[in-house]
Design a protein that fits this description.
Radius of gyration: 24 Å
Shape: elongated
CATH class of the largest domain: Mainly Beta
Number of domains: 2
Helix content: under 10%
């Protein structure tokens, strides 16, 4: 399929679709006729716009004899290019074994949301607990979830 001769100053856009067995990579090239320069636009099935998030804890291993203990919870979030993600509300859920889940919220500012006054009280049981952070993201991003386990020994 040819483009035909350049007859106007409007950039032409070519779009190819790679077969699905190549992860549905889509790319296009816009050629500007006056300068004969091209601009490549690509998107790996939306992956380029997906942010990355990680939950960090001040303590990953808790000892029963140290309870009650303050647990600092922090969510780090970056866009696909590694820049801090800004804007959005983070809902944290802290679920120690044998205790009710605690829920708190924080704003995501410069890629970080923190909840520093979580207290794991006496009465927790030995076993695995977890922290989940859910980000209500702004468009064009989808909401994100990140989970981090911890252990009470």
């Amino acid at each position: 399929m040819g483009l035909g001769p350049w007859s106007d100053d409007v950039p032409r856009e070519l779009v190819w679709t790679v077969p699905a067995d190549v992860d549905d990579l889509r790319f296009g090239c816009t050629v500007h006729p006056d300068t004969m320069t091209a601009q490549l636009v690509s998107d790996l099935d939306g992956e380029r716009t997906k942010p990355r998030s990680r939950v960090d804890l001040s303590h990953a291993d808790l000892a029963l004899e140290d309870l009650p203990l303050a647990l600092g919870v922090r969510l780090l979030m970056r866009d696909a290019d590694g820049h801090p993600f800004d804007g959005g509300i983070v809902t944290f859920s802290v679920s120690p074994p044998g205790l009710p889940t605690q829920i708190g919220q924080a704003a995501l500012v410069d890629g970080v949301a923190s909840w520093d006054d979580v207290v794991i009280v006496a009465g927790a049981e030995r076993g695995a607990g977890f922290v989940t952070a859910r980000v209500e993201a702004r468009r064009p991003f989808e909401d994100q979830n990140a989970t981090r386990p911890f252990v009470v020994q």
